[in-house]
Amino acid sequence: MPGGRRGPSRQQISRSALPSLQTLVGGNLSNGTGLRSRSSNSVGLSAPPLSALITPEPVRHSRIPELPLDSSLLFEFLLFLYLLVALFVQYINIYRTVWWYPYSHPAASTSLNFHLMDYHLAIFITVMLARRLVWTIVSEVSQSSGGSLVRYVVLIAARLSLLTLCGWVLCWTLVNLCKNHSVLNLLFLGYPFGVYVPLCCFHQEGGKSQAAPVDCDYQADHQQTDLAEAPFFRPRDFLFLLRENLREQFSSPPHTPTHTCPPDTHTHTPELIRSEVEELKSDFNRRIKEVLFNSLFSAYYVAFLPLCFVKSTQYYDMRWSCEHLIMVWINAFVMLMSQLLPPSYCDLLHRSAAHLGRWQKLEHGSYSNAPQHVWSESTIWPQGVLVRHSRCLYKAVGPYNVALPSDVSHARFYFLFHKPLRILNLLIWIESSVVLYQLYSLLRSEHWNHTLSLGLILFCNYYVLFKLLRDRIVLGKAYSYPLSSNGLGLKSQ
Question: Residues with Cβ < 8 Å from 262, sequence gap 6 or more?
Fold first, then answer.
């Protein structure tokens, strides 16, 4: 009423009622995490921190059972067997004949044109496909080389004999191929190795050194200039990197990172989580790189290389051969992914992503009346907090957030692994689509070679799909179980 005492305005009520950063996440104000005012200055508070009122919700993890996983030797044997079947199918598609004609017809004497096949090429491809199996046998023998001196000498001699035999067969086939084919065809034999050297030997992991945050309003042109001014590899660097790569191949298997739930009250907890994520990112990228190279390598030698050595007068179904090439690559990709990214490893990535969290970038001018804080690398941020980092506004999405707001790799890591069944569901969808398409093609096939090839490949795909569906059913029940401190779910410790 006029002349009476006025109450506080709406803006004063909202600003006085909103909790400060100390209320939300605790800690002191010496790290620059004060409330951001209109004049872009931090407001120092003399009141003690109220972190006991609103703290980040503790991260709880689900226990998953130990699912059976094929040993390295068994998996390499099954993969080699599948690739041999696919190679046999490709040779049927290329050199098939009309064997049901009368025996007086020259093409009806055999079901395949064996006189047109290059046996040296087939042996060369078989040895190249067996390289992983041979290397796994050598590695298993090397790891179990303990015992008496006589046993150790026998194992060394057997390993050298196996490697010498493979090398001699490769040299013998290469010599015969050089006599009968042009230089262009011979270049196709070693093309994957020309891709492997720059891809796997010279690739530098960028996640080991964290880059400085980039202002969202300006482009980092100076970083491109620094990259352009970087020196090229010298011959000495080439030999050094190649020697280091070979040493890693001959050494024991690389160390698998582990996850340890850090205490929420530790001052170095955010840095420990980010370091763990960087290590897991490097290990995951190494596995994906191995999956991509070996799947493409297998499809290249199984389905593409035989087409390069076909004579110009030989007719074959190009569409069916190319379709077989794609199917071999997809199946090899799924098999390698299921072996190198088992459920226990995906659960490890999921646990780390749950601790990392994610930030959502907001537009300028939004949430102008809400409290905005300056991001600090030593603070654990709860869900819904607004922070400013590199002149941009971000909102905490996860219940537990220690990620760098401007780091795209952190956001990508959280997107991929915050749902533990995302990769497994993707593999099931891919393999199911392949199986359904092959069943549809089998029903519509009119040629004997199509029916035979689809039947053989489907038999291998059923086994892969069965293992994926088994893991999905078990893990789906394990992750759907309610999380509790005394049940299946465990609190971070």
Answer: 269, 272, 273, 355, 492
Tokens representing 205 are 């992991």
Q: What is the pTM of this model?
A: 0.76
Torsion sign across C-alpha atoms 39, 45, 50, 56: positive
Nearest alpha-carbon partner for 344 in 272, 257, 262: 257
Model confidence pLDDT, tens digit, residues 267-297:
557 888 888 888 888 889 989 988 999 999 9
Question: What span, in angstroms and rounded, lies between the C-alpha atoms of 458 and 464?
Answer: 10
pLDDT at 465: 94
Residue 305 and residue 125 in contact, taking contact as beta carbons nearer than 8 Å: yes
Cα separation of 84 and 90, whole Å? 10
Percentage of the residues of the chain whose pLDDT score is greater than 70: 66
User: Among all chains, which residue has been given the structure tokens 């409330």?
Assistant: 35
Residues 6+ apart with CB under 8 A from 203: 289
Which residue carries 């537990």 as its tokens?
Answer: 400
The alpha carbon dihedral of 16, 19, 23, 29 has a sign of negative
CA distance 373 to 357: 17
Q: What is the SS3 string spanning the chain?
A: CCCCCCCCCHHHHHHHHCCCHHHHHCCCCCCCCCEECCCCCEECCCCCCCCCCCCCCCCEEECCCCCCCCCHHHHHHHHHHHHHHHHHHHHHHHHECCCCCCCCCHHHCCCECHHHCCHHHHHHHHHHHCHHHHHHHHHHHHHCCCCCHHHHHHHHHHHHHHHHHHHHHHHHHHHHHHHHCCHHHHHHHCHHHHHHHHHHHCCCCCCCCCCCCCCCCCCCHHHHHHHHCCCCCCHHHHHHHHHHHHHHHHCCCCCCCCCCCCCCCCCCHHHHHHHHHHHHHHHHHHHHHHHHHHHHHHHHHHHHHHHHCCCCCCCCCHHHHHHHHHHHHHHHHHHHHHHHCCHHHHHHHHHHHHHHCCEEEECCCCCCCCCEEECCCCCCECCCCEEEECCEEEEECCCCECCCCCCHHHHHHHHHHCCCCHHHHHHHHHHHHHHHHHHHHHHHCCCHHHHHHHHHHHHHHHHHHHHHHHHHHHHHHHHHCCCCCCCCEEECC
Q: Which residues pair with 157 in a beta bridge?
A: none
- Provide the pLDDT for residue 12: 44
Distance CA 81, CA 292 (A): 19
Rounded CA separation 480/476 (Å): 6
